[in-house]
Amino acid sequence: xxxxxxxxxxxxxxxxxxxxxxxxxxxxxxxxxxxxxxxxxxxxxxxxxxxxxxxxxxxxxxxxxxxxxxxxxxxxxxxxxxxxxxxxxxxxxxxxxxxxxxxxxxxxxxxxx
Length: 113
Fold this sequence. Notes:
Blueprint: E1 7-10, E2 14-17, H1 21-31, H2 35-38, H3 41-44, H4 47-58, H5 67-72, H6 79-93
Antiparallel strand pairs: 1-2
Helix pairs in contact: 1-4, 4-6
């Protein structure tokens, strides 16, 4: 069971999206894209991106789920609604920098001492 927050989404039934570390790994492996590319608004707003992100976010509760099965649960008319739900789940999975969590990888201008 995941310790990360989840976002509920109704597809073929009520499901719970959770973007744990394993979800990001499976998504990178399946798409050949890095996490940074997967979070690009152009990808998130595409039909393929929505399908892939939903798939990865559902793997914690259904490890054998396929992207083809997720495709069968979707309609284009719900694209914007699903994008919002995905964004909610992704944001919930990210550490809160104000709360002392990891603020992300260092950038080229960062000094490590």
